[in-house]
Amino acid sequence: MEKKDTESSVELRHIVRIYNTDLDGKKQVQMALTGIKGVGRRLARVFAVKAGVDPYAILGKLPEEQIEALKNVIENATESIPAWMMNRRKDIITGVDRHVMGADVLTTLREDLDLMKKARSYKGIRHELGLRVRGQRTRSTGRSGATVGVTKKKAQATKS
Q1: Rounded Cα–Cα distance for residues 49 and 92 (Å)
Q2: What are the phi and psi torsion angles at 58 (to 5°)?
Q3: CA of 85: how far to CAs of 48, 62, 128, in Å?
């Protein structure tokens, strides 16, 4: 009977805000943290362990102190994770290893594409033209608009 009282006293927060992202409070900590752009399953588990939080605990039932510890670890991600786990190693402009998360992911991607276009690199030109960038064949796939090729006999007869 006492166990139910302690479980009901801990109220489930359905939405937990970490790193300017609303996370699902009904999920486990390691799975909920993947809701932040730039954080995968492996990195989420590392963050939870570094913060001293059980990765399998429900995020919405965590006390405020543990959520604050998670926030601190995530905000200081460059100190929390090794360089080989970062998604932005040797940044083009600064040359520093860093991990990009949240809204910065889209901004950084856009800046990289603009830099490629401005430098007129092969990849930049392909991005500009809306073509495949990574060496895929484009003879028969990747077409937009109407299909090119054989026309039906009925359509040809009505045109003549």
Answers
A1: 31
A2: -80, 130
A3: 15, 27, 31
Please tell me the distance from the alpha carbon of residue 120 to that of residue 103, in angstroms, as a whole number.
26
Q: Which token pair is 116?
A: 């490629």
pTM of the model: 0.76
What tokens were used for 145?
């608009």
The DSSP element (H or E) to which 24 belongs, if any, is strand 21-24
Over the stretch 41-57, which tens digit does the pLDDT of each residue have? 999 999 999 999 999 99
Query: Contacts by 39-48 with C-beta closer than 8 Å and gap 24+?
Result: 39/74, 39/101, 42/85, 43/81, 43/85, 46/80, 46/81, 46/85, 47/73, 47/74, 47/77, 47/80
3-state SS, residue 158: helix
**pLDDT tens readout for residues 65-123:** 999 999 999 999 888 899 999 998 988 888 899 999 999 999 999 999 999 999 999 99
Number of residues that make up the chain: 160
